Amino acid sequence: MEQEIELATPYAFFAANGHGFEPLPFAVSAWSSTMINGPAICGLLARALELQHCSAEFTPARLTVDLFRPTLNKPVTVVTELVREGKRIRVADAALMQDGADVARATAIFLKRSVQPPGEVWTRADGPRPPEVPIADGPTPPLWNSDGRADGWSSRIGEHQNGGRKRTWQVPMSVVEGEAPSAFAGAAMIGEATSMMTNWGSAGIGFINTDLTLALARPALGPEIGLEADSHISADGIAVGTATLFDRSGSFGTCMVTALSNADRQVDFADGSVFAARAGIQ
Predict the structure, then answer these.
(1) What is the Cα–Cα distance from 129 to 162, expressed in whole angstroms?
(2) Where along the chain do its domains lie?
(3) How far is CA 215 from the centre of its chain?
(4) Mean per-residue pLDDT pooled into runs of 10, the chain (282 residues)
(5) Which whole-number Å values give the CA distances from 45 to 57, 67, 102, 119, 208, in the listed order?
(6) Which of 167, 171, 166, 195 lies closest to 183, judged by CA?
């Protein structure tokens, strides 16, 4: 039986409670109802780092998140620390905590904007393209696309369970109820789906990521963000995947994940279930 989320549920991952953050139904993981999903964790860490350590002349350029323990479906807190304050580079760390212990951690690098250097540099010419849908100005459920399906993008996740290259496109939901996500937090939430885009095959997803590294040349322009798989390499139950972040103006960042085999909890979307997508697995 498919698990449903009531329509009245806030379209956000967390509610601020004065002491930290209470997970909402969309934060539930597809791997287990007792866990919080990766996009929610990455979005919350990115939000905290940006709010506390970024400024107008700096831009978020890299986020690395280590997901070294299961984050349980219960309240969390986030603490941050400034590691280095320089004229052109700023580095900060964050920890996601439950019951006084770290369950995930992150490092962000903020770089000062400047002029482009002269000359021509090779870049990928055949970048990913967004779907031909009306421009959205608020959170949307994800759209999916795969090379193994000829009729393009759709909102039905089970239609794209195949061995083809995967893509997704959406306006991310709020990290915290009542707040619109920043471009940085949005990129972190969508970027965490690199594990899904690169490890999703004809039998579902059998790898669970242990980290995310997000590298951004610029912020997303507009609320809509897409992600296209670039590579999947795996052996002996360990996988490495890379993907490209894009918006309606083109590519703007790269993501990488490492993952471990989780075959005994294989996530199978072939039955058309939408629960994983609605719960935040992008």
Answers:
(1) 20
(2) 12-113+129-278
(3) 12
(4) 49 93 94 94 98 96 96 97 97 97 98 96 91 91 90 91 96 96 98 97 95 98 97 98 98 98 90 48 40
(5) 21, 11, 12, 37, 19
(6) 171
212 contacts 194 by C-beta, under 8 angstroms: yes
CB 72 within 8 A of CB 98: yes
Contacts for 242 with CB less than 8 Å, ≥ 6 apart: 194, 198, 229, 230, 231, 254, 255, 256
Answer for the pair 271, 158: CB distance below 8 angstroms, yes or no.
yes
| End-to-end Cα distance, the chain | 21
Residue with tokens 């601020």: 16
Residue 121, helix vs strand vs coil: coil
How far is it, in rounded angstroms, from Cα 38 to Cα 269?
A: 18
Half-sphere exposure of 227 (CA within 13 A, CB side): 31
| Domain at 12-113+129-278, CATH homologous superfamily | Acyl-CoA thioesterase, double hotdog domain (2.40.160.210)
Taking the C-alpha atoms of residue 112 and residue 110, their distance in angstroms, rounded to an integer, is: 7
Residue ranges in 171-259 assigned as alpha helix (H): 183-191, 194-199
Q: At what angle do helices 38-53 and 183-191 cross, to 10 degrees?
A: 150
Residue 165's nearest CA partner among 211, 129, 219 is: 129
**CA dist., res. 127 & res. 228, Å (int):** 9
The whole-model pTM stands at 0.92
